[in-house]
Amino acid sequence: MMRTVQKLKVEYGDFQTPIELAEKVCKKLVEFGVKPDIIIEPTCGIGNFVEAASHYFQSANKILGIELNLDYFRKIVEEQKFLNDKRIEIICKDFFQVDWLSLIGESKEEILVLGNLPWVTNSKQGSIGGVNLPKKHNFQNHTGLDAITGKSNFDISEWMLIQFVQYLHKHNSHLAILCKTSVSRKILNYIYSEKLNLAYCAVYKIDAKKYFDANVDACLLLCKFDSISKEYYCDVFDSLESSVFYRIGYSNKILIRDLITFKKLENLYSKESKIKWRSGIKHDCSSVMEFRKNNDCFINGLGESYELEETYLFPLIKGSSVAQNQTKATDRYILVTQRLVGDSTECIKYLAPKTWAYLEKHENLLNNRKSKIYHNSPKFSIFGVGAYTFAPWKIAICGLYKKLAFRLVGQINGKPAIFDDTIYFLSFFDEKTAYEAYQLLTSPLAEDFYSSLIFWDEKRPIKSIILNSLNLSALAKLVF
Fold first, then answer.
1. Does a structural domain hold residue 265?
2. How far is it, in rounded angstroms, from Cα 386 to Cα 438?
3. How many other CB atoms sit within 10 Å of the CB of residue 220?
4. What percentage of the chain exceeds 90 in pLDDT?
5. pTM of the model
6. What is the DSSP string of 162-208?
7. Residue 92 sits in the same domain as residue 129
8. Which domain holds residue 297?
9. For the chain, how many structural domains are there in total?
10. pLDDT digits (tens, 9 = 90+) for 269-327
11. Which end of the chain has fewer CB atoms at under 10 Å, N or C?
12. Which residues contact residue 141 at a Cβ distance below 8 angstroms, ignoring those fewer than 6 apart?
């Protein structure tokens, strides 16, 4: 199949940096006091960063641009763009084939690695048949379920940045790279976990929509290295022009979004909370397991209508409904086949024969669920179910929405409300205890505590590990 221009753009994460932005970045580096001897632009494209660097860093004695795309390389040569600056050398070469150790590792001069690396993940590469990848190995050291559930996915720029960090961290050097904000945190986490040298780190947010027409949280990642410092924090600025920042850093071996606020509320943090936030039910087959009710019939996602016993059917509240505070009523229902994970489902055959017949009719769809968690489990199994699922009172929040919006949810038509797996919830067996917990979670102190931990630019910013870290008993002493 012919590789289209659009496919190539996606494969190489090709977002050419406008000269305006390249100049703003270089100006910021000058203000920061960067005075490199050698400048390396590892994916220089049409050369805008090289051009800006040549103007702003007159003292540099060498500026090296490397570019894989032959069309870009030819464009630079044909336009004789850098003919009059003898410091500049442009090489047409694959990033993954460059001997960076020889180029950087032994140098005694001050180095600046500058530029804009590909904004694409390895899974996206695989989906389009891309070949612009490093040699595959598990550099993130993920094992077991983390690999199965997709945590082994990574941005190509993350791998590239790690290579540079490994070579630069023992030198007097700087790294200044445009990347996704999420990638910048992964690099800080890598430096911290490997206990590499770091003198200073900052992130300057950029308007990716304006400069690249991309809907992504992006930034300039700036790292200063030397041979001794181990300063594992990062100052986050709203823009290249802003002087106001908050500081992310480490406490209790976890990355904190706002270290200053967190330190004020650190007494509320708990590694082993007495309460446990749960995730909603996971079934991976909504067309079979979820319904809308129409009079006495249940209509599944395939558009089929059935009269089923209500023994195993429960009112379903989706993540969007929790986010929009629509939790008092619902016309959605979910088929809950087990009371506990691993329970036999054979009893459905006798207690609700119509339901059993329905499940058997759709057995192929349920058997074809891809996740390995269903392998070697009872027929029609689900996950994320336990005694907590059937509690009459719950406090719920959607993990996908970028807002702390807790909801107090009671029973619907005499049955416990069930959530999908985008929801985290606490369960209670009496209304008074549930309401008191709700008051605590919606207090200003709780909001400040959670906001200091949550990185809102992530795909699923609210996580159970963060929710569970709040000590409600300690909070109650301050609120009540």
1. no
2. 22
3. 24
4. 76
5. 0.79
6. HHHHHHHTTSSEEEEEEEEHHHHHHHHHHHHHTT--BSEEEEEEE-H
7. yes
8. 278-479
9. 2
10. 998 877 899 999 999 999 999 999 998 899 999 999 999 999 999 999 999 999 999 99
11. N
12. none
